[in-house]
Specification:
3 helices, 10-stranded parallel sheet, alpha/beta, globular, 17 strands, single chain
Length: 208
């Protein structure tokens, strides 16, 4: 019975994600005008293996990717301090998140990503950036707006066997926001707690 319940939940999850995404595509016409030249990060366009990397400054990412072929494996990526100075920039453009992929391509495997700051997404893909993530644990514990996997402005995320735990007010695990993002999740374990938590969130679907 437990396995049957898990299968039913997975089917409902797929249906809900697809319906939200279709509605998002039908009405999305925003453009991303954020000036990413101002982005700071502890690691930029660097392959990492068996490393621990921390970000501690405001509006700073742990990893920032614009290169199409970056890989990270067996590593710990931690956004340990530095709250967002503008929550809209965090929600829509990925600013202050642990991992920010801007038009590039990133593969993450067998790693851990943690965020502890307000307005810190664990991962954001934007401007047609692509993420393939597998066998990874995401722990998001900011006081507000903790997102696990966020995709905006044509970004794409493919997640397989990823565990996401989000804690905090208005936290969410799988998020598509402005500009037609895509999040695909297979065999993932999702949990959220806090005020107005959600495993799934689509900006257009939830604000129309």
């Amino acid at each position: 019975m437990k396995n049957l319940s898990a299968i039913i939940f997975s089917i409902l999850l797929i249906i809900k994600v697809n319906s939200n995404f279709l509605r998002h595509l039908a009405s999305g016409n925003e453009t991303n005008n954020y000036n990413y030249s101002t982005i700071s990060a502890a690691s930029v366009n660097t392959n990492l293996s068996s490393q621990t990397v921390n970000a501690t400054e405001v509006d700073q990412s742990v990893v920032y990717v614009t290169n199409p072929k970056i890989t990270i494996s067996n590593s710990n990526l931690n956004k340990v301090s530095g709250n967002s100075t503008d929550l809209d920039n965090s929600e829509f453009y990925g600013v202050n998140g642990a991992v920010l992929i801007n038009g590039g391509g990133l593969t993450i495997s067998d790693s851990t990503i943690t965020t502890q700051c307000q307005g810190s997404n664990a991962v954001c893909t934007t401007l047609n950036g692509t993420l393939n993530i597998s066998n990874t644990r995401i722990i998001s514990t900011p006081s507000r707006f903790g997102r696990g996997l966020l995709s905006t402005f044509g970004g794409k995320i493919n997640a397989n066997n990823v565990t996401i735990s989000s804690v905090g007010s208005q936290s969410a695990n799988l998020v598509t926001d402005k500009g037609e993002g895509v999040v695909s999740c297979t065999d993932c374990n999702l949990s959220t707690t806090g005020g107005e938590p959600s495993n799934l969130f689509n900006w257009r679907y939830n604000n129309n």
